[in-house]
């Protein structure tokens, strides 16, 4: 009986990895993740990571949002390893959003200042992953005569 439950759980994990991005992907992933309690912590963590890594970004965000909602309502709890992955995903999403906002502000300020960007300068801004650098460039726009002044 225990062997059969384990096999069924492993099939649920494989199903979530294969179909987690489909029309019913959220339900498939939740079913698989709900079955992880049948495993020891080490196996559950590995299987959880397999399912999570198989999901594309939109489905990951939907899963994270649903899990956070259920946790806030007290309807679901997840082991610490799973919560750390969700917390890290949320932080990474916040950082991506912050960087995008800073890049957008910089590009708008450059346009307002009448400074036209070469393609390589635009690519440099889009590739920048450091908030302090973007902040410095935003501040440098004030009083800049050329784009070289901005990137100084």
Q: Oligomeric form of this entry?
A: single chain
Q: Please report the number of helical segments.
A: 8
Supply Rg: 22 Å
Structural class: mainly alpha
> Count the strands?
0
Mean pLDDT over the full residue set? 83
State the low-pLDDT regions, or none. none
The amount of helix comes to: over 70%
Morphology = elongated
Query: What composes the largest sheet?
Result: none
- Give the termini distance in whole angstroms: 68 Å
- Name the helix and strand elements from N-terminus to C-terminus, one letter apiece: HHHHHHHH
Q: What is the strand content? A: under 5%
The total number of structural domains is 2
Characteristics:
mainly alpha, 152 residues, 0% strand
């Amino acid at each position: 009986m225990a062997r059969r439950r384990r096999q069924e759980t492993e099939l649920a994990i494989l199903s979530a990895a294969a179909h987690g991005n489909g029309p019913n992907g959220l339900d498939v992933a939740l079913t698989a993740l709900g079955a992880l309690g049948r495993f020891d912590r080490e196996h559950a963590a590995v299987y959880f990571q397999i399912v999570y890594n198989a999901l594309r970004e939109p489905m990951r965000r939907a899963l994270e949002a649903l899990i956070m909602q259920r946790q806030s309502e007290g309807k679901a709890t997840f082991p610490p390893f799973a919560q750390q992955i969700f917390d890290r995903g949320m932080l990474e999403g916040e950082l991506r959003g912050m960087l995008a906002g800073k890049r957008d502000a910089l590009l708008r300020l450059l346009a307002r200042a009448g400074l036209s960007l070469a393609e390589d300068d635009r690519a440099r801004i889009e590739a920048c992953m450091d908030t302090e650098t973007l902040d410095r460039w935003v501040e440098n726009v004030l009083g800049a005569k050329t784009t070289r002044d901005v990137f100084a």
